[in-house]
Amino acid sequence: MAAADIARQVGEGCRTVPLAGHVGFDSLPDQLVNKSVSQGFCFNILCVGETGLGKSTLMDTLFNTKFEGEPATHTQPGVQLRSNTYDLQESNVGLKLTIVSTVGFGDQINKEDSYKPIVEFIDAQFEAYLQEELKIRRVLHNYHDSRIHVCLYFIAPTGHSLKSLDLVTMKKLDSKVNIIPIIAKSDAISKSELAKFKIKITSELVNNGVQIYQFPTDDESVAEINGTMNAHLPFAVVGSTEEVKIGNKMMRARQYPWGTVQVENEAHCDFVKLREMLIRVNMEDLREQTHTRHYELYRRCKLEEMGFKDTDPDSKPFSLQETYEAKRNEFLGELQKKEEEMRQMFVQRVKEKEAELKEAEKELHEKFDRLKKLHQEEKKKLEDKKKSLDDEVNAFKQRKTAAELLQSQGSQAGGSQTLKRDKEKKNNPWLCTE
Amino acid sequence: LRLPETRTDAAMSELVPEPRPKPAVPMKPVSINSSLLGYIGIDTIIEQMRRKTMKTGFDFNIMVVGQSGLGKSTLVNTLFKSQVSRKSSSWNREEKIPKTVEIKAIGHVIEEGGVKMKLTVIDTPGFGDQINNENCWEPIEKYVNEQYEKFLKEEVNISRKKRIPDTRVHCCLYFVSPTGHSLRPLDLEFMKHLSKVVNIIPVIAKADTMTLEEKSEFKQRVRKELEVNGIEFYPQKEFDEDLEDKTENDKIRQESMPFAVVGSDKEYQVNGKRVLGRKTPWGIIEVENLNHCEFALLRDFVIRTHLQDLKEVTHNIHYETYRAKRLNDSGGLPPGEGLLGTALPPVPATPCPTAE
């Protein structure tokens, strides 16, 4: 019954001393738990699987609620991750649940890079935590932990074996996150095929060296149940948010013409086992493994990558801190320099184009001026012409009136002439009169 | 006019490299309150957590400071109902009062109700016992900071232990002599310096030498003096987390503290029960009787309600303050000087200047 750590410390020269009465520190676990409860818990689930395997439905079924979100189409150009956070409350426990789902996984023609966005996302969460941890002024105890605690990998219910995409992706993820593989939509497989399918999957995982999460068996109170559950992996699940009346109760189920698959019936699928393992027994262990194993591994690799080594105990440890900072600043400085260069080039090009445009504008102006001048000259000419024509017309008018005047004078002076003219007119109607 | 559009476009595309698919960083989380229908089992995490902590066990480091003869060891033994501290009265001839303040840390493992705790009692023989007691708090401050340094070194390692051994001082009981007048200059000096780096709980020792009125007057005077001198003892006002904490802690700060205690490891028969107490010609002083002294309050406060909080304040606040100062002090190195053998300023010989 000796806890490993305390036993080690006892070995280091600490005696165990008997107590003469009740001291009261057996309330310590309660004190600790109460603090955690008041702070609230975080749990982050990543669902990886092809479109249409029922990831969202399973989440809804697990947590008895309808999370929002529309089903994705198959036409995504690349794999993306969609993340949502929810506040759940049960009795006095508050849980900040984050569900991250892949969108478009397995839909592309070329799936070589499909795993990359997922790995990058997980690393980004680790990086954010590492950044916070390395800060000078940090608030780790209030930090919203966004690291992925468990990855549910959805396997398509083909009944044959794992797809190569599955193997590749799981292999890339197994050192970064706790993987629990599950067979989705398992009501598509018959019971006998299911057993063979599970065996095939497990052997393929083992042959390819993929390390999936094993439920811990070192704590006696849960060793037995965890041990039996380990043998049932991968869990064959069915999800449903619709309720069907069975007997005299409403239960969550999927109704087919030939029968009804009950979600919470252990003979029909492993949903209850998944819920038990994931939430009711091992949630804390998943969180702990993420922090002490996966995160530490990431941290170690990242720091070694940046060139740090553990120095001997005498020398100061803070070379880590500011050399990390210094390297980071250096890197940022480089990025800035590049950005500057790009900006300079851009400015240059803009200048050139501006100059060209100015040239063009100038030409345009000149042309306009020329045309305007031409137009003015034309106009002047026309005006001159008009003037001369007007003069002619005036002159003609003047002569006309003068001629008429003469005629009228002439008619008075020689009325006989008019008579004569009239006579002449009678005789000759072709003569024009005034 | 034909503007060379095609040329500039090609040039632009040279500038901007092909966009790499951005790593999907999550959008700012939107908290949605979902109501639950049916039982899920989220609250089992409490049980899971409790199981795990019981398995790993707890550490607790308590330091006792005060002049010799104030009953420090007896009190700690009474607190933990076992011989975890060795009384100086039992020292033999050779181990006289040391010339300088010594720091002695002794660890024991105690178990109760399935909970294992590694208790380390840090004794400070020689404090305040010299003729000239100037700066006698320095070795203590140095020790406290050394523990922070040790922890920090472990934390900064690349390959870290799964559980960093915690030797930091979680609680410092400062024993005030029951003169009945006021605090002594040494008391004030010590608490002024140390209250900024460690949780200090002032305790009035050997309180059976004061009557009830003397006791309450003395306590009031002590509280006043501490306030006037800007000494924040645990539970510090600024670290109250919510209203509930504040009201609870206010009551303790303004009424109960400093606790006037009596310690004893001998049992006597009183009213048919065996109780811990001190036998005097005029009666038996029962240690755990609230009418006689406030030992039970101290015990409940330190062990039964605030033990975890003492550790958390030490870790989240005092340790973080030390770390931030340490990292700031050794900042400003030119980059590229190499990792090993980087010339860093040494850990200051005098205690780190505490934030004012």
UniProtKB/TrEMBL annotation, chain A:
<dbReference type="GO" id="GO:0097227">
    <property type="term" value="C:sperm annulus"/>
</dbReference>
<keyword id="KW-0175">Coiled coil</keyword>
<feature type="compositionally biased region" description="Low complexity">
    <location>
        <begin position="407"/>
        <end position="417"/>
    </location>
</feature>
<keyword id="KW-0963">Cytoplasm</keyword>
<comment type="subunit">
    <text>Septins polymerize into heterooligomeric protein complexes that form filaments.</text>
</comment>
<dbReference type="Pfam" id="PF00735">
    <property type="entry name" value="Septin"/>
</dbReference>
<dbReference type="InterPro" id="IPR030379">
    <property type="entry name" value="G_SEPTIN_dom"/>
</dbReference>
<dbReference type="InterPro" id="IPR027417">
    <property type="entry name" value="P-loop_NTPase"/>
</dbReference>
<keyword id="KW-0342">GTP-binding</keyword>
<feature type="domain" description="Septin-type G">
    <location>
        <begin position="39"/>
        <end position="305"/>
    </location>
</feature>
<dbReference type="GO" id="GO:0032173">
    <property type="term" value="C:septin collar"/>
</dbReference>
<feature type="region of interest" description="Disordered">
    <location>
        <begin position="400"/>
        <end position="434"/>
    </location>
</feature>
<feature type="coiled-coil region">
    <location>
        <begin position="321"/>
        <end position="399"/>
    </location>
</feature>
<keyword id="KW-0206">Cytoskeleton</keyword>
<comment type="similarity">
    <text>Belongs to the TRAFAC class TrmE-Era-EngA-EngB-Septin-like GTPase superfamily. Septin GTPase family.</text>
</comment>
<keyword id="KW-0966">Cell projection</keyword>
<dbReference type="GO" id="GO:0031105">
    <property type="term" value="C:septin complex"/>
</dbReference>
<dbReference type="GO" id="GO:0032154">
    <property type="term" value="C:cleavage furrow"/>
</dbReference>
<comment type="function">
    <text>Filament-forming cytoskeletal GTPase.</text>
</comment>
<dbReference type="GO" id="GO:0043679">
    <property type="term" value="C:axon terminus"/>
</dbReference>
<protein>
    <recommendedName>
        <fullName>Septin</fullName>
    </recommendedName>
</protein>
<keyword id="KW-0547">Nucleotide-binding</keyword>
TrEMBL record, chain B:
<dbReference type="InterPro" id="IPR016491">
    <property type="entry name" value="Septin"/>
</dbReference>
<protein>
    <recommendedName>
        <fullName>Neuronal-specific septin-3</fullName>
    </recommendedName>
</protein>
<feature type="domain" description="Septin-type G">
    <location>
        <begin position="56"/>
        <end position="329"/>
    </location>
</feature>
<keyword id="KW-0963">Cytoplasm</keyword>
<keyword id="KW-0547">Nucleotide-binding</keyword>
<dbReference type="InterPro" id="IPR008114">
    <property type="entry name" value="Septin3"/>
</dbReference>
<dbReference type="GO" id="GO:0005525">
    <property type="term" value="F:GTP binding"/>
</dbReference>
<feature type="compositionally biased region" description="Pro residues">
    <location>
        <begin position="345"/>
        <end position="356"/>
    </location>
</feature>
<dbReference type="InterPro" id="IPR027417">
    <property type="entry name" value="P-loop_NTPase"/>
</dbReference>
<dbReference type="GO" id="GO:0005737">
    <property type="term" value="C:cytoplasm"/>
</dbReference>
<dbReference type="Pfam" id="PF00735">
    <property type="entry name" value="Septin"/>
</dbReference>
<comment type="function">
    <text>Filament-forming cytoskeletal GTPase. May play a role in cytokinesis.</text>
</comment>
<keyword id="KW-0342">GTP-binding</keyword>
<comment type="subunit">
    <text>Septins polymerize into heterooligomeric protein complexes that form filaments, and can associate with cellular membranes, actin filaments and microtubules. GTPase activity is required for filament formation.</text>
</comment>
<dbReference type="InterPro" id="IPR030379">
    <property type="entry name" value="G_SEPTIN_dom"/>
</dbReference>
<feature type="region of interest" description="Disordered">
    <location>
        <begin position="327"/>
        <end position="356"/>
    </location>
</feature>
<comment type="similarity">
    <text>Belongs to the TRAFAC class TrmE-Era-EngA-EngB-Septin-like GTPase superfamily. Septin GTPase family.</text>
</comment>
